[in-house]
Amino acid sequence: MLIDSNAYIGHWPFRERNYNTCDGLMTRMDEFGVDMSYVSSLTAIMYKNTQTANASLYREIQGNSEAKRRLKPVAVINPIYGYGGWKDDYYTCIKEWEMSAIKIFPIYHRYDFNNEYCIELVRMAAKDDIPVMIPIRMVDARPSSWLDVEESLSTNQIMGLVKQVPETKYILQNVASGVSFSDENEKVFRNNQVWMDTSGRSMNEFHHLVERFGVEKFVFGTHSPTLDYVTGLLRIESLYNSEANEADKESIRATNIQKIFNHQ
Amino acid sequence: MMNRRKFFKDTALAGTGLMVTGNAVGAKPERRPNVAPRDIMAEVKKYQKIDAHAHVFLHGGDSPEWEVGFAERLNITKLVASKPVARNLEANPDQFRECNNMVLGAMKKAPDHIIGQMTLNPRFQKESLEEINRCVGEGMVGLKLYSHVKINDPLFYPIIEKFIDLKMIILMHVGIGESRVVFSPIEVASTSIAKDFVDVSARYPEAMFQFAHLGGGGDWEEGVKTIKHSPNVFVDVSGSNNDANIIDFAVKELGEDRIFFGCDNSFHQGVGHVLAANLTETQRRKIFFDNYNKILKKSGNHVD
Asked: How high is the ipTM of this complex?
């Protein structure tokens, strides 16, 4: 089984994206044998009021019977928008629309991990036992538009949030700014409910990362349609048997993500 | 020597022909839920590959074993590898000779995997020309340059002419340049950008230039659009930025004959985005292997 923990549909303002509809994404899933994808709205990232894009994502998935079965919507929540109005967004997405997780973008929405509402949101997720997904970056800033952000998050910054709210499940996505933790933060990563997806460029020596942290800390992710659809999977499939046996690979392909979402 | 004007005219026509026959990207796949999914490791094993943009001794002391390890993991037949001399403009002949000696050492250590590529600093013209003779004599093929001079700098002309005679390609680093409109403040002014390739390719239509790493941090769409009508400028798709559309866009704009597979030490991305691209079987074979092997064949250094 293959479950993509990190996919999007929607529009990106600075470059054309392909396969960015339900049908487009499912075309890629069929081609490479992906059974299920956790999907957020790409459009929402550039909206301050992310909820309108969450609603579009929900409607698009609801309107397609196959998508309803294979695409699990993930809400993009902006916790500094609407002076508490974001809580309505959260409850609508999670309770009414039964979205599976939330995704946050502190740089695009301009707050940091010490922000009281960010911390409140992450605590709400823990209470509802839903994971919080945090992309390190959306795109490589170098070739992007001058209007796009230049900063990325770091794994150490995110460990600061984990220390404040350790009861939450976190999935770090498109890890592209290195996996060089401070000693203290490496312990935080190892000892808490924190995973990384396989899409980011810092996963290049994936065999060493698996050896260092164990297969249980990684989940398959494509970061589609921004990154190519194959590289995140190739990192798993090209592991030698001596580095990860079939059961280990299956953990990264699907089992770990099923456990995170309590599907197993 | 062939008349440059005539050569340019002929090459341009040939290039136009290539564009007519070679720019069709494989038809977009439609939903085929009952067809068996692709087996990506079977495809990794199926295609021979020449990494047209490889390095040794950039990762650390375990070179070339580190690079060869990835080549074996991902069935990369050959790594066309250099050790670029320091980016500072004054990198002297002793320094570039030392880099080339390191590559020669790697070639001896891993002869089945590594095709050595020399590096120079064109600011030291006499020593650079002497070094070309030495490196070619030792079996190196092609040239990799950083930003010591722009690719269209007159200091570089004698070296370009030498490589025309050798029938070997010149791989030039490309920077972020004007990707975010204003020239990147972290780069030296002599960093080549796409329009410099257009300029030099018009001056030397018989030379072969390789526009480095579409995934290396520059605006790949702008780069491809800029060099589109320069038929002796090839691109490699290496780099850490495996943006989903790089190869599809390059094939659409440049045709299938001017694109080389490459990794620039980002091995998973290099192989991954060629497999992910919407290509025909022929296009995939050309990009992975045939296009660069054709370049090697011109100097008699091709892979059988």
From this structure: 0.97
